[in-house]
Each structure stands twice: as C-alpha cells, then as structure tokens.
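Sample intake sheet
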Amino acid sequence: MPKMKTHKATAKRIKQRKSGSLKRGGTPQDHFLTKMSSKRKRKMRKGGGVSEAYTRRIKRLLATS
C-alpha cells in the first residue's frame, strides 16, 4: 500500500496544535466589503477551531502522525 499524501490545500489552511486539535484561519476578506456591516467584518477577522465532527476527516487529509 503506498503512503498517504498530504492534501496541500488543506495543509495551507489548517494547522494542528500540540494537543491534537485543529485550528483554522478566518474568513477571507477581499471584496464585497462595502455592503457588509462593520460588526460582520470584525467577526470575520477571527480564526477558530475545527468542529469535532470534521476533525477525523481533516486529520486524514493532513496525513500527519
């Protein structure tokens, strides 16, 4: 059986913490910003964690450890 390859698109967007949980960046903010409220744009800056429902699937894509 060949080695699993890392899914590069996922690896660029999601990093694994030492605890094993996953962290992701914020929502891209590049266009259509004039119609959005300041509150909405401010909330989009924040990153966050990956929900438990997707963790196993994403770890498989990252193919780490």
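Comment: Residues 1-15+47-65 form one domain. Helices lie at 8-13, 38-45, 52-62.
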